[in-house]
């Protein structure tokens, strides 16, 4: 699963990435991802001792960010769609304020929801509303400027004891500095936080790969296409996976060329 959100950040052109994990899971992530050098990345690792909210990530990563803008993606989110790299790159270029993405869903009451006024401007963000003001859910991908840690310090725990990301985003909205970009019908956003949604995501990815013969969420391919690693580095990765379908896929990429 970690390959999918990692590849999303890579598609945005981001190469310095901090992976935030639970204390007990960090070693496994380190073994799987290493320092990121195999993909031309620089990976750091941070621990979240307890699940105290998404906004807490900006407090944990404050030294890593060093006052710079950042993008945060949730580890159980999958994004797919033609033009996704361009959409992400545009958000990443915004130096001030914040950008989030709204996605039309059938069950908005499960998510943080965007409310729009009569002119189509964003008027509010509401966490899991009983009566959703729209069908646009806020996805688990956030581009925020360097003030995010400072804003996170002002967030107070919610009734469930967490520092809510919606509260952090509301501080940008109150200043007119939050942009909500809606993802159209050509995009897929999958939240794999339940067994059923994980199965749905697996079937979606399998259908794409069987039909197109192309991998989804491959950091090896993304790094190669971005020019961060060369043909020989990609072939070395292919040899690492031996004669598996994935190893053969990486070999085929080099034969076919960029």
TrEMBL record:
<dbReference type="InterPro" id="IPR005907">
    <property type="entry name" value="G1P_thy_trans_s"/>
</dbReference>
<keyword id="KW-0548">Nucleotidyltransferase</keyword>
<protein>
    <recommendedName>
        <fullName>Glucose-1-phosphate thymidylyltransferase</fullName>
        <ecNumber>2.7.7.24</ecNumber>
    </recommendedName>
</protein>
<dbReference type="GO" id="GO:0046872">
    <property type="term" value="F:metal ion binding"/>
</dbReference>
<comment type="similarity">
    <text>Belongs to the glucose-1-phosphate thymidylyltransferase family.</text>
</comment>
<dbReference type="InterPro" id="IPR029044">
    <property type="entry name" value="Nucleotide-diphossugar_trans"/>
</dbReference>
<dbReference type="InterPro" id="IPR005835">
    <property type="entry name" value="NTP_transferase_dom"/>
</dbReference>
<dbReference type="Pfam" id="PF00483">
    <property type="entry name" value="NTP_transferase"/>
</dbReference>
<keyword id="KW-0460">Magnesium</keyword>
<comment type="function">
    <text>Catalyzes the formation of dTDP-glucose, from dTTP and glucose 1-phosphate, as well as its pyrophosphorolysis.</text>
</comment>
<keyword id="KW-0808">Transferase</keyword>
<keyword id="KW-0479">Metal-binding</keyword>
<dbReference type="GO" id="GO:0008879">
    <property type="term" value="F:glucose-1-phosphate thymidylyltransferase activity"/>
</dbReference>
<feature type="domain" description="Nucleotidyl transferase">
    <location>
        <begin position="1"/>
        <end position="205"/>
    </location>
</feature>
